[in-house]
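The records we work with from here on pair a chain with its fold. Each token is a code from a learned vocabulary of local backbone shapes. A record is reproduced here so that you can trace the correspondence yourselves:

_____
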Amino acid sequence: MTSTEVTGEDSGPSGYAAARLHLLHQEAQPGPPRRAALARLTDTWLAALHASAAPPRGTALVAVGGYGRGELSPRSDLDLLLLHDGTVDSATVAALADRVWYPVWDLGLALDHSVRTPAEARRTAADDLKVQLGLLDARHLAGDQALVSGLRTAVLADWRNQAPKRLPELDELCRERAERQGELQFLLEPDLKEARGGLRDATALRAVAASWLADAPREGLAEARRTLLDTRDALHLVTGRATDRLALQEQDQVAEALGLLDADALLRQVYEAARTISYAGDVTWREVNRVLRARSVRPRLRKMLGGKPPVERTPLAEGVVEMDGEVVLARTARPERDPVLPLRAAAAAAQSALPLSLHAVRHLAATTRPLPEPWPADAREQLVTLLGAGEPTVPVWEALEAEGLITRLLPDWERVRCRPQRNPVHTWTVDRHLVETAVRASALTRRVGRPDLLLVAALLHDIGKGWPGDHSVAGETIARDVAGRIGFDKADAGVLAALVRHHLLLVETATRRDLDDPATIRSVATAVGSPATLELLHALTEADALATGPAAWSSWRASLVADLVERVAAVLAGNAPPAPEPTAPGAEEERLAVEALRTGEPVLTLHAEHPTESTEPEPVGVELLIALPDQPGVLPAVAGVLALHRLTVRSADLRAIDLPTELGPAAVLVLNWRVAAEYGSLPQAARLRADLVRALDGSLDITARLAEREAAYPRRRRGTPPPPRVTVAAAGSSLATVIEVRAHDAPGLLHRIGHALETAAVRVRSAHVSTLGANAVDAFYVTDAKGAPLPAGEAAGVARALEDDLRNR
């Protein structure tokens, strides 16, 4: 007996288990050969089990579902049907089932089993769509072959006869699953089976083809299905579990098992497969609905119209018409003579919110000659029109991309296509994010003088992510080159390059730098260069953030960016930023300082601020004002208390106020913080004050309390985060030294940083805290004891000490 043979003499679990183990780890090549070999091995074993039970006539063992298709992954369950013709008594059938089922269970394999007559199987299928789909792949394993053939014939006939009713049910089932599981091609931890574009959708397309009502685009579909099955096989072997979810911590091992470079290469391959299946599904279900609509026309009306209703063709653009709800090529179109036609057809489809016909896209891909370089003005205008159509741009762009037209028009697109973004803040892959940014920018075109530059910049702003190094720097060069190739003049190409180079400038400066510092405003004005570019950059910043995900934009961020833009615009208009002057304390700050001096203890107030001229309920932030006598340890104490109360810090401003007393001036610290509740409502000011008093007098051990909470409610972490990095920002401010901290966000991080800065004997003038997903990027304006910026050597030493402190905790 070879390792892939199991006979009746060795049909027990141990014989099959040994042969199975040998097959999975030593014999067959991975991929379809191994799955087929595993199915054959399992077929032989189950047939031997069935034969050893001396089965009566009129019974058969049938594989259904994935096993019926021969798609056995290492940990797949077995879908089995014991079929009988109804003439065998129930006790005999039950005994036969036990002789087959129990050895499977003894081996620890998952088993989905049923015992039915053909009539019962058909009735169950009529009531349960999933059962019917499984029976479409029914395959004889042992017993009465004619019984199985009869069932297959009847089930296929039922499926085809009931297709007008069952296919809409299947379509709805796929949509509901997509809503629950998301789109596989954009998920960092995708479910290879259940997510949209996964194996279940590929199986649904097989069922549509079996109905003879419509068929899926075949090109690339089998290879996409194979990619997902190969990935699932590797996942099962790596984890030793029957799982379809490709978790982050297992992706490197799965990639290695498949012979891929790394987890990013794995995800990109999986995303490409999912995109192929998703696009095939879109086309197929559109065709199904078109056929069903046509069949719903009343027979009498058909007869009145001569047997076939006329097909209307509505002109949309030169060489482009609408027909039966799709955009197709006009009969007079000549793609081989009209290189702009693909863009013109795409723009017309997007502007009309109609899908591009699969046949039209494939015909364009096969016959259209390349555009000359630089592009003619008409081609560039059609691209801008396509990008400016809003949401309908996305499916049209995907149709072009599915047939390779996008990379033909924009070769640099290949490097970002299906490229994953390993940051939970990002909703999309790089390429889809770029298209989504253009969609968001299309709603902002009325705010800018050059909407064409805004839309193209939105499409290109992350194009450098396919290259090593800073993607903004790489993207600047690529954008300039692309702009020239698609026909923009040198000046416009320079603007596009600047927009790509600085697309993060406004939001990073607004959230991480002191906007009252003239050096901050001057540096942005110098980088931007002109009011027109600033206007475009402001709109691009908003579109980029909105297309990134819900964590990347808020009223608070919008207000900070708008404030920065207003100040920079004033400088670009010739108005110098005001010289830094100590601002007088406000009335409330002075009142709190006097009270703190009188009592010798902290006093504080909390109140929410909302955006000006806005009906949005979301507050810009909650202002927390604290005044207390000047003393060491204030910053870590306040930060720690806020962390204990689950308040997220957005910014902090610290200053000392000298108040007159009988013994001379006395220093009072006033802290102005912007905070937000992590969840739930804000704590009471009295509780904050009480805990702050205890933190300052040493009776509240903040470090221990935070550690206790972390131990009681540990946060789930996927993988090991990169180590923290602390740097000194070059020329960040003329008023202070700017120390920037990049670290994994965690409760108490600001408390730890404040403690380390206190230990370094520097004064913190202000702090600007920015958190995106699991990443914190905090900027601290620090001075020496006299309020002056730190010398370069001392600043570098403080940064090193802070980094060492954070790494060692």
The chain has a mean pLDDT of 88. Residues 263-295 form the longest helix (33 residues). The longest strand covers residues 647-659.
